[in-house]
Amino acid sequence: MSSRSHGAGLAAHRETIERDLANGITVIADRYAFSGIAFSAAKGLDRSWLAAPDAHLPAPDLIIFLHLPTGTASSRAQFGNERYETLDIQSRVRDEFAHVRERVRGYAGRSGEWVDVDAQGSIEEVGEKIRCVVQPLVERMKGEGEGLGEIKRLWV
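Predicted structure:
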């Protein structure tokens, strides 16, 4: 999937996401604008051009980036079965995610917090790491009534 089609796909879901957020429904996405940028930039495309189709999408409150050393990832079952699962490409994508992370951090207060989570361990162990990151946000939103106000916008 190209970044353009990825961006168009997200734009097609914008209304649904915004409606759900307005109704107090939590939206969880396993991938959002960031992966399309990282994977396409790793192939040499311009980062700003790649981000443009996703500008003004609802910004996430929290971005969880699961990181895993390339050597560990390559030793897992099924590694290499997908087109982009080579050590070279994964290394370039990791570098591009670092650029995306810095761009997100540059929008402090206008986009969500980016949290790196070590993905080494069992499914249960990684799940617990994620829960520990998400739970404070959930509690804060319950206590302060956050999440029902103005929707922040990506890249603006």
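Summary: The radius of gyration is 16 Å.
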